[in-house]
């Protein structure tokens, strides 16, 4: 009787199934981590864009307040709209504008004190991609020191995530 020898260089079906299962688990975990990383990257990018846009807007407001005068009197409640006269003597107003569920910071400049009453009078100074949730102005204006304006802006970054930026600026001109 002749004996045949089998060459056992292949894998059994059970070994292949175990290897494929381990491979699929590793791929599943890796893809979950990759998808979460992409989501985090989008939120961080939106955070950075919003912060840069709001910082530029706050700097524009601060620049005008520094050279402005006729600021409103001090109150315990914050202002929703800031109106004063800029260095050229024009009346300038800043306020939150709500357009189709998106908030933006608006600026209006007029030769008359009553010139900035309607939302249509204001120009947007923030990007339409930035959703401003809240804009308030705290004013300390007494006779002993220059007026101090604190501006607080809250923006929506992602669902349930907001960014609040605040700056204080003092007018160089004493009212």
Automatic annotation (TrEMBL):
User: Keywords in UniProt for this one?
Assistant: Membrane, Transmembrane, Transmembrane helix
Transmembrane segment boundaries:
12-35
| Pfam families found in the cross-reference section | N_methyl
Q: Which domain of life is it from?
A: Bacteria
The protein here is known as Prepilin-type N-terminal cleavage/methylation domain-containing protein
Q: Which organism is it from?
A: Candidatus Nomurabacteria bacterium GW2011_GWA1_46_11
